[in-house]
Amino acid sequence: MGIRIDVVVDYPINDEMERVLGLAEAVGEPVTLTIVWDGQRQEEAERAVLVPAATLALWEHWAPTACPAGAAGEEDPAVAEEQELAHPAEFGPFTLFRRRVGGRTAVAREGVVVAELLDPDEAHWLQEKARGVRQGFMDPKQRAAFEEFLARQASLDEQ
User: Fold this and answer.
1) Which of 86, 89, 87 minimizes the C-alpha distance to 11?
2) Cβ contact 103:80 at 8 Å
3) Which tens digits make up the pLDDT trace of 19-55?
4) E strand or H helix at 112, and its extent?
5) What is the torsional sign of CA 43, 36, 87, 72?
6) Which pLDDT value is given to residue 107?
7) What angle (nearest 5°) sits at the alpha carbon of residue 18, between those of residues 14 and 25?
8) According to the model, what pLDDT value does residue 77 have?
9) What is the mean pLDDT of each run of 10 residues along the chain (159 residues)?
10) Contact criterion met (CB below 8 Å) for 66 and 92
């Protein structure tokens, strides 16, 4: 994926999340993160991909289906459903809303979702599926022009 950054998140007064989100928004590409929450050991670090909202909307538009539960690294879907409800986490001007199901975290600024933290496997799956569908898509005008072009071509017997 686009960019790889290691981030250590301490307290909301620090602007790590703001800088990373600003980078993701500026380049319009996903940013791969390794997040070490305050008091956590490096081995317990959380890996995620920060995807700008517009990029995620584009991927979800072109991806033909939702990511299967097994593709995002979840061995047991029931485990994801049992996650404990938590208060939104505040990081300066950003609020993180973790979904109980699916493992995504929405990142909001001033009440508007500007990005989402996704599991790296889910982000990769979505990006690849969207790319495959988009590359095979022709809008109606393009399809009509291509069909007209093919109709003008000599058949194999005539060649």
Assistant:
1) 89
2) yes
3) 777 787 788 788 888 877 777 777 777 788 888 888 8
4) strand 112-118
5) negative
6) 86
7) 165
8) 46
9) 59 65 80 77 80 87 70 48 67 79 81 88 88 78 86 75
10) no
d(CA 79, CA 75): 8
Query: Which helix (H) or strand (E) is 91 found in, with range?
Result: strand 89-91
The dihedral built from the CA positions of residue 88, 106, 104 and 91, taken in this order, carries a sign that is: negative
Give the CA count within 13 Å in the CB-facing half-sphere of 131: 7
Give the HSE-up count for residue 10: Cα atoms under 13 Å, Cβ half-sphere: 4
Whole-angstrom CA distances from 2 to 83, 86, 158 are 30, 30, 49
Please give the C-alpha separations between residue 131 and each of 54, 65, 95, in angstroms, as whole numbers: 15, 13, 30
C-beta contacts of 7-13 below 8 A and 24+ residues apart:
7/33, 7/34, 7/35, 7/36, 8/35, 8/36, 9/35, 9/36, 9/37, 9/38, 9/91, 10/38, 11/38, 12/89, 12/90, 12/91, 12/92, 13/92
Measured between alpha carbons, how far apart are the two ends of the chain, in Å? 46
Report pLDDT for 68: 66
pTM of the entire predicted model: 0.65
88, 97 in Cβ contact below 8 A? yes
Q: Give yes or no for a contact between 97 and 86, defined as CB atoms under 8 angstroms apart.
A: no
